[in-house]
Design goal:
Number of helices: 2
CATH topology of the domain at 67-225: L,D-transpeptidase catalytic domain-like
Largest sheet: 9 strands, mixed
Radius of gyration: 17 Å
Strand order of the largest sheet: 1-4-3-2-11-6-7-8-10
Oligomer: single chain
Distance between the termini: 33 Å
CATH class of the domain at 67-225: Mainly Beta
Helix content: under 10%
Number of strands: 11
Structural class: mainly beta
CATH superfamily of the domain at 67-225: L,D-transpeptidase catalytic domain-like
Strand content: 25-35%
CATH architecture of the domain at 67-225: Beta Barrel
């Protein structure tokens, strides 16, 4: 493992590092309640079998289909790895440029999840906490998104939960200093967006992955989002 990399943006209250590469990350903030995305083409890969963790969830409130083979590259599948962050156990770390989220565990391990991230220009970064957790949340597009996409006006008071809801099966709501950052970790109804920068802001995971993360993460969990230097922070 390389020496810890210290960041100069006020986020380095603890060591953060990566093996074999710099650990740089960021995420999207303006319109973060939005979380819609651009359609992406199917992944063209060799035939893949879907692991058990990505099979259908028929007992969910809204039964979830299995992840289709080829929708998500294998490197973005959920995996237990050696912790590359140096953060204390019980911390979430978002690595936006490399499209990973880490749940730091004991004994130098971390659970790694593939993520989809927001388009450049909708950025937020910092240290904060998980204030709320919601199963099958309502999605309410922010005013900024409605201004850009007037067709979303009908959802100004919220889109009911369901398979078509952009927040998916679970959502974690991030607050800093007691204020809503509008930054969310949530499921997605577009699994092909994992590993890409296509959404209007939020950090999305496969529905099966956000359920796993939701079950691990308690309220008030600290989260670290370190900015990508190529992205302007709002």
């Amino acid at each position: 493992m390389t020496n810890f990399t210290k960041f100069k943006n006020g986020l380095n209250r603890g060591p953060i590092s990566l093996s074999r590469r710099s650990f740089l990350c960021g995420a999207m903030a303006l319109g973060l309640g939005g979380c819609q995305s651009t359609r992406t083409a199917p992944l063209k890969t060799a035939k893949l079998s879907v692991p058990d963790m990505y099979q259908a969830r028929p007992k969910e409130r809204f039964p979830l289909p299995a992840v289709k083979p080829g929708d998500v590259p294998r490197k973005f599948w959920r995996k237990l790895v050696d912790d590359p962050t140096g953060e204390r156990p019980g911390t979430l770390v978002v690595d936006t440029p490399h499209k990973y989220l880490y749940w730091v565990m004991e004994d130098g391990k971390a659970m790694r999840y593939g993520i989809g991230v927001g388009r450049q220009g909708f950025s937020w970064a910092g240290r904060a906490n998980v204030a709320w957790k919601r199963a099958w949340p309502t999605w309410t597009p922010p005013s900024e998104m409605i201004d850009r996409q007037p067709e979303l006006k009908k959802w100004r008071k919220g889109m009911p939960p369901g398979l078509g809801n952009p927040l998916g099966a679970r959502a974690l709501y991030i607050f800093s200093g007691g204020k809503d950052t509008l930054y969310r970790l949530h499921g997605t109804n577009e699994p092909r967006s994992i590993g890409k920068a296509v959404s209007s802001g939020c950090i999305r995971l496969l529905n099966q992955d956000i359920i796993d993360l939701y079950n691990r993460v308690p309220k008030n969990t600290p989260i670290v989002v370190i900015p990508d230097p190529k992205t302007k922070i709002a």
